[in-house]
Amino acid sequence: MQAGPLPQLTALAAALLAGAAAALVARAALGAAAALLTGARRVAPEPVGTAPAAVRAFRRAVLAPAAAASGRVLPARWRTAAAAALRRAGHPGELSSEEAVALVLLSAAAFLAVGAFAWSCLRVEPVAIPGSALAGAAVPLLWLRDRTRARGAAIARALPYDLDLLTLSVEAGLDFAAALAKVVDKGRKGPLSDELSITLKELRLGRTREEALRDLAARVELPALTSFAHALAQADRMGTPLAKVLRVLSTQMRAERTQRAEKLAGEAPVKLLLPLIGCIFPTIFLMLFGPIAYQVFLGGDF
Measured between alpha carbons, how far is residue 234 from residues 27, 166, 177, 202 in Å? Predict the structure, then answer.
């Protein structure tokens, strides 16, 4: 006798829930592994042996051979795009572009196996197999996108404070390199401080201010930092006093920070609307009208 549609729908729902849970676990594992690798490299000068054994074993036994194999066959533009994405994300876990591409391929292969298992054992539709592979390939990309967004938000939050400190240092009589060193030393530690320290090293190695600022804007690719670098480069070319330009930029950054906070505050009610309708309102309706419905339809009494 042919089975009805209910068992198939139940199996499909179970497969979808399993795939979603696997995606969440994979993203959490990627974040934890990158945090452990990055933390190990920041704490100890010798990174060998400081990462957890499981992470080092996976990277040495699985990720490194897959990266070496994929690096020989993948187009150069894919590696360039992966390197740019890793640069915007702050090189989490110090992954190379070949390792990032290999991580996408390994995640797709793992989810492909999950989809094949669901198709063979749970009798789901065959479209679940390529769909699982696509979902697996998207997991590292979504994780990398989240890291990029978090890093950009951290830089945008720290930029007004560091710009105020840079303005005060220049107005106190320091040149740009000395003022930038003061910002790196006394400013907030984070992604912006790391990028400014790289710019400071470039200035000390003999690069011009315009070249160092252009490299800073190209590395971060954040609109606020790009406008800051372009304004200082334009001030150099036009001969405008640096303290005056920095004071104008500082005022503009504080105004943009206030506008950004007002925008986020305005978006909060809209973002709360979906959980309010989907989670809170049904509970309230159940508490208010549940006893009435029980009494009317089931003849219950209280």
Answer: 42, 18, 17, 19
Count of domains for the chain = 2
At 189, which CATH number?
1.20.81
**Span 64-89, pLDDT tens digits:** 788 787 777 777 787 788 888 888 88
pTM for the whole structure? 0.68
Phi, psi angle pair for 23, to nearest 5°: -65, -45
CB atoms within 10 A of CB 247: 17
Among the candidates 118, 153, 188, a domain finishes at: 153
CA distances (Å), origin 33, targets 27, 45, 146: 10, 19, 15
Find, among 94, 85, 134, the residue nearest to 114 by Cα: 134
Does one domain contain both 89 and 172?
Answer: no
* pLDDT value of residue 201: 92
In a domain, 279, yes or no: no
Residues 9 and 103 in one domain: yes
Q: Is 215 a member of any domain?
A: yes
Given 153, 180, 209, the domain boundary residue is 153
Cα 188 to Cα 31, 46, 170: the distances in Å are 23, 26, 18
Residue 116 domain flag: yes
Instruction: Round to whole Å and give the CA distance between 83 and 98.
Output: 9
132: pLDDT strictly greater than 60: yes
List all residues 6 or more positions away from 54 whose beta carbon is below 8 Å from its beta carbon: none
Percent helix, strand, coil in the chain, to 5, is: 85, 0, 15
Residue type for position 94: E
Task: Specify whether the CB–CB gap between 203 and 209 falls below 8 A.
Answer: yes
